[in-house]
């Protein structure tokens, strides 16, 4: 149990946004519904505008600016900036810099701005209600953001932009559907509260509830249900080990609308250089965790790690070492190409690129084989324990 956090000055802006506004919503929305009822259009505005503001955070604040997982054209940057401003989660500069600090010091009770080890309440919302030292702005980790004109414009005029964006989005919709107060209360106020807590689930529940298929060196979890609630951000264990991938749901079947939005923008020429972690690295991390869980299971069943598992570990290590040599050769030749620009070097690069593709496929096949072998081995061990 960690000692209680020292009292910090109250953040009155945070209290207004995260405590006062929900109280207003609890009172005003039922009263309006009792006397006037909400139109269908107002309810539709809640859902549509929730997606708009949430995707501004996930595709913009998070994957574009915090992690540089892809590059965006100026029109897309402006659109994502407006969408993110509509979510009212502070400026891009403050949000992205703080999130980088979270990744660097994840789970550290003193340096992680929203460490889950300080408790669910602190990680979810408490860190924003007081001015804790861990959450203080420090932009030394964000020189790229300080040179981004869109980011700095929003940071300079953040409060006016919040007002203008809300007026520009909510008032025309309310007028068009003939339910101004309904849209303001549902598409504006209730949507804002939902948008806040959808994002905060990543900091709290995604560090408490779910599986860890890629790493157990931090508290981040993968959770399908939270992925649905958080627009694809729920595959948080993957994200914490491979934070620069533009995808969080890396499997084809995983629900990640943010990934689909970024990919669609790339096809329209609005985004480029989408960063993807090589499948070999992903499978290697998965297999390493399978070995670790297998060892834990064997310990529970009273068995030592047997020779088969040790032999498979050695084979994986040898294969990865050989593959690393090929990667090193490729990197050296790339460097030579940059420096010498010789035709002979370029030809060597072409040849080793082809070799790399073949080697990569072979190693992936071997990883799949070893994963299947490990799963069969563990099933047999558990079966023998039951029969004994």
UniProtKB/TrEMBL annotation:
State the Gene Ontology terms under molecular function.
oxidoreductase activity, acting on paired donors, with oxidation of a pair of donors resulting in the reduction of molecular oxygen to two molecules of water
Q: Which GO terms describe its cellular component?
A: membrane
Where is this protein chiefly located?
A: membrane
The residues forming a coiled coil are none
Could you mention a single GO BP entry for this protein? fatty acid biosynthetic process
The protein's location, in the record's own words, is: Membrane
Domain Fatty acid desaturase stretches: 42-263
The record gives the membrane topology as: Multi-pass membrane protein
What are the UniProt keywords, alphabetically?
Answer: Fatty acid biosynthesis, Fatty acid metabolism, Iron, Lipid biosynthesis, Lipid metabolism, Membrane, Oxidoreductase, Transmembrane, Transmembrane helix
Similarity-based family: Belongs to the fatty acid desaturase type 2 family.
Q: Could you tell me what this protein is called?
A: Acyl-CoA desaturase
